[in-house]
Amino acid sequence: MSEFPFQLLIKRTCPKGGEESLTCTAVLRRIPGKRLVYDALWQDRGVIVKVFSHRISARRHLKREWRGLSILRERGLNLPEPLFTGKTEDGYLAVVVDKIAGSSTALDVFNEAKDETTRLDLLILVCRELARQHDKGVLQKDLHLGNFLLQADKVFALDAGQMRFFSHSIARKRSISELALLASCLPADDTGSMTRLCEEYFKVRNWRFGRADERLLQRQLSVRRERAVRKGLKKCLRTSKRYLRIKSGRYVAVFDKGFCQGTETLDFIKQIDTLMDKGAVLKRGGTSYVSCVGWHGKDIVIKRYNHKGFIHSVRHTIKKSRAHRGWLHGNRLGMLDIATPKPIVYIEQRKGMLVWKSYLVTEYVEGQKLYDFLRDDNVTEQQRLRVVDQMSKLLARLRECKISHSDLKHSNILVTETGLVLTDLDAMKTHRYKCLYEVYHAKDAAFLPTTGTV
Asked: Parallel, antiparallel, or unpaired for β 343-351 and 403-404?
């Protein structure tokens, strides 16, 4: 089944019938050992085929999917028309549904949108459909934009097997909790768009959006964002849609797939020290070595954390290497919309079980250090004050997320055309308890100038 197109024969079981022949033209999703989703043709009609391959749970998943589709249709919600279920020649169970022509997932449309207005309009469409689902007693166990299909202004429900069905409408508190998942797609400071999204949802449910609802939404937004970050950080440590984890000899590494592909990963690892020596050295110290290099037309910054003895290696093996921590911190800030150089590779060189050296690679960001910017005679007082205001907002955002930089100084902040960029995240910490965080935050805030001068 690796070459397309190929014929897939399915013996119908519900509704019962003969054998159906489908031409599979592409694979849409692959979850090894669990299921495959194909784009296919059946009787000159576009269809989607979901094949369940797990030896133990395939039958349960098929029944749950078909039951979910049937209930959605009974309750008058938008969904791809369910056609039939059956068994393939290999003994796998399959469900076939109609393909919605000219459609895309809401996630793809959201990611391709070029402005916030377009994204908000899309979220409002999805929000209205979510409100209808909740009003009909339908709750998605894995709510995200990828589970909605968009055709013009019509929204269809996907993944019926991951839905729960109730004989009553979903209660207000649970509804707001689910709504917070959609609202978390918006920028954290865009309260106006969040309010409008909620009002649209409440309008469909014939509810009034009050202050108590707004407070609950804000609490749920905080909870949902924290969960999304934790989930995202787990993904950035393993092979996924966006990342590639490799292990080769003494090296363990994770690459952003947009940076390196195929054999380039091994080439990069083998050449990394040579590349650093040939690049523009930014720092050469006993603890770390930093160099700006070019790689396939891209400017990147490589930071190597040097080996400083056996005990040093044991300590950083136990509490994770500095490159590992920097990789997670950079990705965390990216998920929270806090500007920092994008992390694109982290590498650990090991001897046995111990981390010997580690490397963190980030994109190069063109900018001026805050210290130099504030002392630049060509910078006006108004520009200085604007940057100081941006710094205050950055600290407020870090406070909101309970993050301390722990080494915040003027040389670790870049002033760019698009705003401030936070660098050197080695000592960054996240905190659970507010009382402890306040101590660290006070240290971060202590350097902030009260005027436009240093």
From this structure: unpaired
Residue among 109, 111, 105, 112 nearest 149 (CA) = 105
pLDDT in tens, 142-183: 888 989 999 988 999 999 999 999 999 999 999 999 999 888
Cβ atoms of 69 and 138 within 8 Å: the answer is: no
Q: What is the rounded distance in angstroms from the CA atom of residue 416 to the CA atom of residue 266?
A: 33
pLDDT recorded at residue 189: 75
What pLDDT does 451 receive? 46
Predicted local confidence at residue 2, as pLDDT:
58
CB 194 within 8 A of CB 217: yes
Q: What is the dihedral of CA 248, 249, 254, 258, to 10 degrees?
A: -40
CA angle 437, 438, 439 (to 5 degrees): 90
The pTM (predicted TM-score) of the whole model is: 0.76
What is the C-alpha to C-alpha distance for residues 448 and 222, in angstroms, rounded to an integer? 27
Residues of the chain with pLDDT under 70: 1-2, 261-263, 448-454
235, two tokens: 């993904």
Helices H / strands E in the chain, number of each: 12, 23
* pLDDT score, position 454: 46
For the chain, what is the largest distance between any 2 Cα atoms, rounded to a whole number of angstroms?
83
Q: What angle do CA 256, 262, 263 make, to 5 degrees?
A: 115
How high is the pLDDT of residue 452?
47
> 3-class SS at 17?
strand
Coil, strand or helix at 63: helix
Full set of structural domains in the chain with CATH: 6-98 (3.30.200.20), 104-235 (1.10.510.10), 243-363 (3.30.200), 368-445 (1.10.510.10)
The Cα 251–Cα 277 span in angstroms is: 20
Contact 254, 247 (CB under 8 A): no
Q: Where are the alpha helices (DSSP H) in 289-433?
A: 310-318, 322-335, 370-375, 381-400
DSSP for 101-118, please give it. TT-EEHHHHHHH--SHHH
**Listed residue (109, 101, 156, 112) closest to 133, CA to CA:** 156
Model pLDDT, residue 29: 87
pLDDT at site 262 = 57
